[in-house]
Amino acid sequence: MRNMREDIILIFVILMLVVSVGCGKGPVEKRTVIRFFNPQGLPEEIEIMHEIAGKFEEDNPDIKVKIESGGRPDKVLVEMAGGSPPDVYLAWTEIAPVAAKNALLELDEYVQKYQLDLDEYFSFAVDFSTYNGKLYSLPVNMHIPVVFYNKDMFERSGIPYPDGSWAWDDYYRIAKELTRDFDGNGRRDQFGTHLASLNPWLLPNRGYVIDIRNKSVNIRSKEAIETLEFAYKLHRDCCPTLSEMKTFGGVGEVDPFRAGRLGMLMQTAAYVSIFSEIKDFRWDIVPLPVPPHGQRINIVSGDYLAIPKGAKHPEEAFRFVKYYCGKEGMEILASHKRFILSYKQAAYKSFVPPPENMNCLRSIIEEPYAFDLLHGQADTGWYEIIDSFYRGWQLILLGETDFDEGINRMEKEMNRQLKQTFGQD
Questions:
Q1: Adjacent-strand bridge partners of 306
Q2: How much is the pTM?
Q3: 292 shares a domain with 363
Q4: CA-wise closest residue to 128 among 325, 375, 346, 343
Q5: Terminal C-alpha separation, the chain
Q6: Which of 92, 161, 187, 368 has the greatest number of beta carbons closer than 10 A?
């Protein structure tokens, strides 16, 4: 029969074994899991978000980020309406319609609590994330258009490279010179440009097709007609038709530029990274041409991170947002050179060659800027009126109606919708 001393020794040994095994496994900590929805789905985009989330988890071991990438951008709106939103989401659409429905968390209190200095961001980026004087998101990057141009094509045509002093007439002249039918078969083989969007033309020239303050259609203003006539001429003389586009084996304006068949392309500076894979010709970037009134105005939009009002973990979500949009996340984004970043310090680090004229972005961000015509508008009726305008414009470009008749139809339809929405003639 064992004595009491033996029993005490046995209990001590068992306790030591339990402690030893427990120490070997390490302490079990409860981690808060936050959902991060990002509709971006390109391989490099997914790589970037996982890189930032992984680094965040290393520095914040109490939080686990569950990434949901790809899918329709409006997926988050459906989940918000259903009461099961993600904790954080990335978007590039106007924030006003969502904020106006009280569906987003106001971030001003968190900014103060975590001593986030908004002066470290470009002012236009903070403005883009604000609605009615309150901050509803933190800016990630800004989309500012530049002109990409094929340097080899310019040299073969004997055309000097463009610089920041060029104007609309210069752009048209160069685009027309670059548009060629080399074999004389009646089908053009090379094109000067592609009219991907009207915004970089309309808004810099103050061609506002609607007057939101006075609730009126403004499509026949001098600036609007001047811009539409220029864009129509540019499309007719220098841009590929739908049938000509089919010869490139792809869609949109990117494929003809990649294929070396397009001399100039107006696109967001984010394409600097995308076009870095081009090896068949040399290319560069230059600021937009100056509009007729004599001052370049850059159109700004952007991506941002927001927290839905019904997020399960708003505190942890903001810590992730602050990290993603702060120095740590921005330095990772800067290394990929995909965007004009909203965070000044990281942005300036990314303004280095290649391409050769990458440094022009430094001057572009100091120039006057404007947001999309509907920026800050919560009333979705205006969005429907603008959609009507673009549908009519596409009919003109497709040749289904001539220019003057198309403008008449657009004006009539926009006024009809205006009256239906706001009771205005």
A1: 89, 137
A2: 0.86
A3: no
A4: 375
A5: 105
A6: 92
